[in-house]
Design a protein that fits this description.
The complex is a heterodimer. Chain A contains two helices and 23 strands. By secondary structure, chain A is mainly beta. Chain A has one domain: Porin (Beta Barrel). In chain A, strand 3 and strand 4 form a beta hairpin. By secondary structure, chain B is mainly beta. Chain B has a single domain, classed as outer membrane lipoprotein receptor (LolB), chain A, CATH 2.50.20.10. In chain B, strands 6-5-4-3-2-1-13-12-11-10-9-8-7 form a 13-stranded antiparallel β-sheet. In chain B, strand 12 and strand 13 form a beta hairpin. The chains are: A mainly beta, B mainly beta. Chains A and B meet through strand 1 of A and strand 6 of B.
Chain lengths: 408, 262
């Protein structure tokens, strides 16, 4: 270990190398239109986040070291107040291969509304319920660059639990999630997972096929005897992390202004085999009405073999359950890119459940002020959700989020 | 290119002595563009730093800084990778472009916060690059085949003998109907370009200054100034730290290199 640290220190002090710090500090206000369903929750939350990033390149950019910690402090939600190492990694680049060793983040996928294929990193759900923030994942990754495409081989030692809001946190499921979790594997969070992915660009097409074997990032839930008060009041639900096998496909094609997207997964190991598909298009109108504004129209269809209803009887009987709100849904959205000096953007979208399971809306807008400030606004919520639906707990949680960030 | 394509110019050349003997304005301008292209080929690869100073009508400035790498591709358009440094909120964002002599270009955008590589439509040629007065098509590699040409006249510009000719973008997605080029006769360097919009109105003027020669062959303007006559906005594009010895290859321009761009 001492020798390794010494070697690392030597690497980091190579003369002629380039090093830099960058990052941001941000303040966020999260507000709700209605009173909380649970009296322990609040009407508004304030938080501060800090994400510095240090990187160093040496050996003619063939070696790259990155350190990116993350800190978040929330006014009420103790689970949301947390720190993480997003990245602590060393990348080495050779002629036809690359390695990435340490803690890092990998993104797979192409669709906008859901991220089915993306599985390497655990979702840091407490940061934002859009699921796009990820916890750092320990990994050793080998990338082979071949004529037939790129092959990524992953060894993932160690597992990160998904973060869920605390009892005081909001928005959350109607029932809080237990901080104690269950694992299928006796190795628990020390189970080593594996993944392999082949990807290639052929003309207008970008394609990726992957397989993951290891601990599910998305848990099922179980109600333990200690989790409920008889006869039928559930106080909390416990996440259950099982060993799964997931095979995935992601495909993207571009034809003029048309961007066609498809993601599909098959997953076994969590009871009934899960099949899910997301597919659609984004068409961009460039320079609308001779202006500089681009408008993108997004349509995606979502299918998931899991039910969007919670089977309360089975849950009370202690059977693990998993749900997806996107069993048979349509996503309609529009992206406005102003192409101005302030990089102003607006994305408005709606997800409609085609089986009468209600609708959800999402609005995201951002612009820069000066050279280093950025203001972002989000508004999200759900409507017309039936009683047993997995989203029913969120009905009083329609909300807006205002964030001001200073980049350095 | 088919054999008949290759033979056609040869056949035309054979016919020349029987014709009027003079080049048509179309042939002359095409010849000038081909000579300019020939003089700038063989550079292999280079990297450079770019600073853009955006000025709005009121004179308020904002600054963009990017690092750029370019790779010459035999018999096709260049490959380029640009990494954004300023403004800071987009630091680490990178754009990979493969330009093609024929057909649409390929472009991928890397978003560092999500670690996501997004394929983007190259339809946005006419769109502004980073909110500046330069459109994507103004900064993309200029392939001879992407335009048709017409020679206008000889002139003197700032004491230099220049050719003046027009070129017409072949891509219907272009924001321009025509461009007027002032090219110096000695080194075939661009001195000035006027851009006419789809309504045939003068939209922008680009002037080139502070030329420097690299490896005894390749001329690069270190100071380019684009003025938009319709909005009163302007962008100055300063290119420095040219490194023609960077010795880059295809591996510096693949999606993996995009993902580790910093």
């Amino acid at each position: 270990m001492k020798r390794l640290l010494c070697a690392l220190a030597c690497l980091l002090h190579t003369p002629g190398a380039h090093a830099e710090w960058r990052g941001y500090v941000s303040a966020e206000l999260l507000g709700f239109q209605e009173a909380p369903r649970d009296a322990r929750q609040h009407d508004a939350y304030a938080s501060l986040a800090f994400e510095p990033e240090y990187f160093r390149e040496w050996n003619r950019r063939d070696d790259l070291f990155t350190f990116k910690p993350y800190f978040l402090v929330d006014s009420h939600d103790d689970n949301r107040t947390h720190a993480d190492i997003r990245e602590l990694s060393w990348i080495h680049v050779a002629r036809d291969w690359e390695t990435n060793i340490g803690i890092s983040k990998v993104y797979w996928g192409v669709t906008e509304a859901v991220h089915l294929v993306d599985i390497i990193n655990q979702t840091d759900l407490v940061v934002n319920e859009d699921g796009e923030d990820k916890l750092g994942q320990p990994m050793a990754k080998l990338t082979l660059i071949r004529d037939y495409g790129v092959v990524d081989l992953f060894v993932l030692p160690g597992f990160r639990e998904r973060t869920f809001p605390d009892i005081e946190g909001r928005p959350r499921f109607g029932i809080p999630v237990n901080d104690d979790v269950l694992y299928e594997s006796g190795a628990e969070e020390l189970h080593t997972d594996f993944a392999v992915r082949w990807s290639h660009s052929i003309g207008e097409f970008d394609i990726g096929v992957a397989h993951f074997a290891g601990t599910a990032r998305e848990p099922r839930f179980v109600v333990l005897p200690a989790d409920f008060t008889p006869p039928s009041t559930i106080a909390k639900v416990t996440p259950l992390y099982e060993i799964i096998n997931q095979t995935s496909l992601d495909l993207q094609a571009i034809f003029g202004g048309w961007l066609l997207k498809l993601e599909a997964i098959v997953r076994s190991g969590q009871g009934k085999r899960v099949r899910a598909v997301a597919g659609g298009y984004e068409y961009t109108f460039v320079g609308v009405n001779d202006s500089q504004i681009d408008i993108g129209i997004i349509t995606e269809y979502l299918y998931d073999s899991r039910s969007d209803d919670i089977n309360l009887g089975a849950a009370l009987a202690g059977q693990p359950f998993s749900t997806s709100p996107f069993q048979n849904d349509l996503v309609l959205g529009a992206r406005f890119t102003l192409n101005d000096a302030a990089s102003s953007e607006l994305l408005a979208s709606m997800i409609v459940d085609l089986d009468g399971g209600g609708q959800s809306y999402n609005l995201e807008a951002s612009r820069r002020f000066g050279d280093s400030w950025k203001l972002s606004l989000e508004a999200r919520g759900v409507m017309n959700i039936p009683a047993n639906n997995v989203l029913s707990g969120f009905e009083d949680d329609n909300r807006f989020r205002l964030e001001l960030a200073r980049y350095f | 290119m088919t054999i008949s394509d290759k033979l056609l110019p040869a056949l035309l050349l054979c016919l020349l002595p029987f014709g009027a003997g003079a080049e048509s304005p179309v042939e002359k301008a095409l010849g000038i563009a081909q000579e300019a292209d020939r003089r700038d080929s063989g550079f292999g690869s280079y990297s450079n730093d770019v600073k853009m100073i955006l000025k709005n009508k009121q004179g308020r400035e904002s600054v963009r800084e990017i690092r750029s790498k370019t790779l010459e591709v035999a018999d096709d358009g260049d490959k380029s990778l640009v990494i954004f440094d300023q403004p800071r909120d987009v630091a680490g964002t990178a754009l990979l472009s493969f330009t093609h002599r024929e057909g649409p270009d390929d472009q991928w955008l890397y978003l560092p916060a999500l670690k996501r590589v997004k394929r983007i439509a190259s339809d946005n040629k006419s769109g502004p690059f980073m909110g500046s007065e330069f459109a994507y098509e103004d900064i993309a590699s200029q392939e001879v085949e992407k335009y048709t040409y017409k020679y206008l006249r000889d002139e003197t510009l700032d004491g230099l003998d220049v050719f003046v000719f027009e070129r017409y973008p072949q891509d219907e997605k272009s924001g321009y109907t025509r461009q007027v080029i002032w090219l110096d006769k000695e080194h075939y360097k661009e001195r000035k370009i006027e851009y006419y919009d789809r309504k045939q109105a003068l939209l922008k003027t680009l002037t080139f200054a502070d030329y420097q020669q690299f490896r005894d062959s390749f001329w690069r303007a270190q100071d380019m100034h684009m003025v938009n006559h319709q909005t009163g906005k302007s962008t100055r594009l300063l290119q420095t730290n040219y490194d023609f010895a960077a010795d880059l290859d295809d591996r510096d321009f693949d999606k993996n290199s995009l993902k580790r761009a910093r």
